[in-house]
What does this fold into?
Amino acid sequence: THILHAALRHELGDHVKQAGSMVAADRLRFDFTHFSQIDPEALERIEVFVNQRVRQNVPVTVEEMDMDHAMQSGATALFEEKYGDRVRVVALDTFSRELCGGTHTGRTGNIGLFKIFSESSVASGVRRIEAFTGNTALDHVQKTSRILQQLSPLVKDRPDHVVNRAHSTM
It folds into this structure.
C-alpha cells in the first residue's frame, strides 16, 4: 500500500490521500481521495511504477520516534487517524516515508508481482483500487492470457487483435 500510495500521488497529484486499506498476503484494497475515475492508461502507469519499485528490492525500514521528529523527517500520515506521542515511520528508499502501525515485508522484492484488477468508486470523492500480489497476481495474469489465447481462434485473429476483431463484428 505504501508503494501504491506513492504511485498514485506521482501519477494523479498530491491531493491523493489514503482513506483506508486492507492488506493480505496475496491481495490488497486501497481507498484514496480522488475526484474521478482513473483512465486505463493511468492505471497501467501506476501499475508499472509499483512493479518497478518492487523490483528494486529495497529494504523496508521501520523506526519508532516521537511525532514531531517523524513530521520533521518528512513522514506523512496515511489518513486522518489519531496518533500518539510515539509513532512508527515506515520508509522505502526515497519514494515513501509514512506513519504506519501495520506489518510489513522486509524488502519490496518479497511482494513479487503487483497486478491491479479493479478500480472503482466507494463514496463521493473516494476511489478504491484492488490488486493481487505475488503468486496470486501471476495466476491472474496467466488466467487472463489463457482466456485471450482461447478467444483468438474463435474470432480468427491474433491475440493482440482480438478486441479490434470483436468491435468489427458488432
In short: Residues 134-154 form the longest helix (21 residues). The CA atoms of residues 26 and 166 lie 33 Å apart. The chain has a mean pLDDT of 92. Helices lie at 2-12, 40-56, 67-72, 134-154, 162-168.
